[in-house]
Amino acid sequence: MAEGLRFEHVTISLGPERLIALDCTVGPGEVLTVMGPSGSGKSTLLAAITGTLDAAFAMTGRIRLDGHDLAGLPTEARRVGILFQDEYLFPHLSVGANLAFGLKPGVTGRAARRARVGAALAEVGLAGFAERDPATLSGGQRARVALQRMLLSEPRALLLDEAFSKLDTGLRAQVRALVFDTARQRALPVLQVTHDHSDAEAAGGEVMTVG
Ligand code: ADP
Ligand code: MG
Question: Domain ABC transporter spans what residues (predicted)?
Answer without folding.
Answer: 5-210
